[in-house]
Each structure stands twice: as structure tokens, then as C-alpha cells.
């Protein structure tokens, strides 16, 4: 029986960095999928590549593997286990979470390696790209 199931989202993503006192760009709020992280020093935004943002720095060409949920907040070790599988395969990750699930972002050029490693470790991956 497979472990959890992950699904490769069809769009590619960009991770943006803005000043901590920046407003959230209106284009972000219009996007059907986005993630925000804010500290005193930085506002980080993850959006599909199709959303254009004027940022200090950006890193493009990320693909998202959505951990199919919902997952209960009391579940322990899922992110660590998947992270360990991907680390062993030498795949860097950028993780974002919602109340119900996690998204593992990997660079597009490492997506195939990530998928193979996850399947080998007993995970199911939907929407696999070759």
C-alpha cells in the first residue's frame, strides 16, 4: 500500500522577495493560488509564473508537488519524511503549507528526480511529468 499521494500541479511558480514594509501586490490577490510569508525584514510571495511582480529578487521555474489532504495538524513527521527522501535524491525543496496540506516546490529541472525518488520510497505521484 502506498504512503501519501502527491500531485504535480500543472503550472510553474516563481518565488519573490520584497521589502518587509511592501504592500502585497494586487496581482497576487487575483491569482487563484499564492503563498505569502512575512517577517519584519522581508515579504516572500510564491505565485504562478504567469503573475508578474516587481520584486527585489526572484527565483523562477519551480514546480509544486501538492500533498493530497486534508492532513490533520496533529500528524507528525510527514514533511520530514518526504524532505528526507528528496534530500537523499539531492533535490532542494521550498515548502509552503496551508491549514490542510503541504506543497513541496522543486526546481523544474529536478522534478523527474523528485518523482522517481518519491515513487521508489513508496509514495504515489499523480500528474507525473517525464
TrEMBL record:
SUPFAM superfamilies, per the entry: ACT-like (SSF55021)
Entry-linked InterPro entries: ACT-like_dom_sf, CASTOR_ACT_dom, CASTOR_mTORC1, UCP008459
Matches recorded under Pfam families: ACT_7 (PF13840)
UniProt protein name: ACT domain-containing protein
Organism of derivation: Alteromonas australica
PANTHER family: CASTOR ACT DOMAIN-CONTAINING PROTEIN, CHROMOSOME 1, WHOLE GENOME SHOTGUN SEQUENCE
Origin superkingdom: Bacteria
Domain CASTOR ACT: 57-118
Amino acid at each position: 500500500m502506498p504512503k501519501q499521494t502527491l500531485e504535480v500541479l500543472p503550472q510553474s511558480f516563481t518565488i519573490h522577495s520584497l521589502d518587509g514594509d511592501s504592500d502585497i501586490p494586487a496581482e497576487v490577490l487575483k491569482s487563484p493560488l499564492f503563498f505569502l510569508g512575512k517577517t519584519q525584514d522581508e515579504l516572500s510571495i510564491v505565485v504562478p509564473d504567469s503573475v508578474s511582480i516587481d520584486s527585489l529578487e526572484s527565483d523562477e521555474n519551480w514546480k509544486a508537488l501538492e500533498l493530497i489532504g486534508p492532513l490533520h495538524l496533529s500528524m507528525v513527521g510527514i514533511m520530514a519524511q518526504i524532505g528526507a527522501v528528496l534530500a537523499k535524491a539531492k533535490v532542494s525543496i521550498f515548502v509552503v503549507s496551508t491549514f490542510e496540506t503541504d506543497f513541496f516546490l522543486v526546481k523544474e529541472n529536478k522534478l523527474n528526480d523528485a518523482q522517481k525518488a518519491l515513487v521508489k520510497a513508496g509514495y504515489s505521484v499523480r500528474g507525473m511529468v517525464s
